[in-house]
Design goal:
It is a single chain. The chain is mainly α. The chain is built from 15 helices and 5 strands. The chain has a 5-stranded mixed β-sheet with strand order 4-1-2-3-5, with helices on both faces. Helix 7 packs antiparallel against helix 9. The protein is rod-shaped and about 135 Å long. The chain starts with a helix and ends with a helix. The N terminus and C terminus are likely disordered.
Length: 387
């Protein structure tokens, strides 16, 4: 069953799934990168502050090794002096600790980004499940972490052994050096050793970071059902959306039909299209398409127009052009200004009883590039010639 689920989850995680994981505090992390960054930060602070650190350490040791007769016989004074040395040492090491903390934070931000989430503080009793814990131990990730820990222990242990062996003579010679020289030599060896460990750590990082990223995105992979469920949650149920769109179309159609009695003229292609035009002479401007339809809807538009004594004009090319190029409640394009103006002039002259004085527009008045019928006929002619 687990293998089937793994096979099903073949789709990459969506942006929403990745964002949800981040909100829950689930982001990729690499402990090896953090360890290497801390070591590298330690090397950087030692290189930048070797002199001041050595001088301050020398003062602390000199002050701590100065004992009076009263100090020797008063344990409380020795305890106070030890506490004073400890506090001074902590102040000396504060920059080292601070840069180490900054390095650890930046290393985690580098791979997973900065995220602040309280989800990780919420009690999760499923983590106490021993069966789940054993499953994690014997999983592929548990095996990788075990091998990585063994490899890291062996490599770092061997590097530490080599460094101690190489520094053996230095440790002996430091005992005979003055305090300042001994501290300088100790700081130099510590800096070099930390740098060596940092290089070794980053070799491990080169393996661990790609693995952690691969594992993170693998855990968030989605199945087809996950994608469908997410789509429902973000965009709503497709059936409900389809029903809403149908209701919206019906409402738009009802408003369109209610606007037809306000039209100045209805232009038709008797077999297919009807388009209702409205020109507001008081406001001027451009004639607008207030309703249009094809087939049964075109017939309904003509029927409503006749019931309301709206002129119905048969100009097939103009009807096709308006239907295909102008949306409802939009102005007609400039290329149709002339033919529509002739149409309205003819309609107004009919209303005034002077229709014989104005010629109605014809199909030839419609620009050829605006008439889909002409373009279709041209395409059919080319196909016939080719045949």
């Amino acid at each position: 069953m687990a293998e089937e689920q793994e096979i099903e989850k073949e789709l990459p995680a969506s942006e929403r799934r990745l964002q949800q994981a981040r909100e829950e505090g689930n982001i990729p992390r690499s402990r090896e990168l953090a360890g290497g960054a801390i070591l590298l930060a330690g090397v950087a602070i030692l290189m930048a502050m070797t002199g001041p650190l050595v001088v301050k350490s020398q003062d602390i040791m000199r002050h701590g090794l100065q004992l009076t007769r009263d100090d020797a016989f008063d344990p409380f004074r020795m305890l106070n002096q030890f506490a004073s040395m400890l506090i001074d040492s902590m102040w000396v090491l504060t920059p080292l600790f601070a840069i180490a903390v900054v390095g650890a934070i930046l290393s985690n931000v580098a791979i997973g980004g900065l995220i602040i989430s309280g989800k990780g503080l919420t009690p999760d009793f499923s983590r106490l499940n021993p069966i789940k814990g054993l499953g994690n131990i014997f999983s592929l990730n548990g095996l990788f972490e075990l091998l990585k820990a063994i490899l890291k222990s062996c490599v770092l242990g061997y590097v530490g052994y080599v460094l101690l062996r190489n520094h053996a003579e230095n440790y002996v010679s430091m005992a005979a050096m003055p305090l300042g020289d001994s501290l300088n030599e100790s700081a130099r060896m510590t800096r070099n050793d930390l740098l060596t460990f940092a290089v070794v750590f980053f070799l491990l990082v080169a393996v661990d970071v790609p693995y952690q990223l691969w594992r993170y995105y693998k855990q968030l992979r989605m199945s087809l059902e996950d994608v469908k469920q997410e789509a429902k949650e973000t965009e709503g149920d497709p059936h409900i959306k389809a029903k809403v769109r149908a209701l919206q179309r019906e409402a738009a159609r009802r408003r369109m039909m209610e606007a037809i009695p306000k039209a100045d003229v209805v232009v038709t292609n008797p077999t297919h299209f009807s388009v209702a035009l409205k020109y507001d002479q008081a406001k001027g401007g451009v004639p607008r398409v207030i309703a249009k339809g094809a087939d049964e809807l075109a017939f309904k538009i003509r029927e409503i127009a006749r019931e309301n004594n709206i002129p119905v004009m048969e100009v097939p090319a103009l009807a096709r052009a308006l239907y295909h190029h102008v949306k409802i409640d939009k102005d007609i394009p400039p290329s149709l200004y002339t033919v529509v103006a002739r149409l309205l002039a003819y309609v107004y002259s009919l209303a005034a009883g002077r229709g014989h004085l104005v010629q109605p527009p014809t199909d030839s008045d419609v620009p050829a590039d605006m008439d889909p019928g002409i373009q279709t006929d041209a395409d059919d002619g080319m196909q016939g010639a080719g045949a």
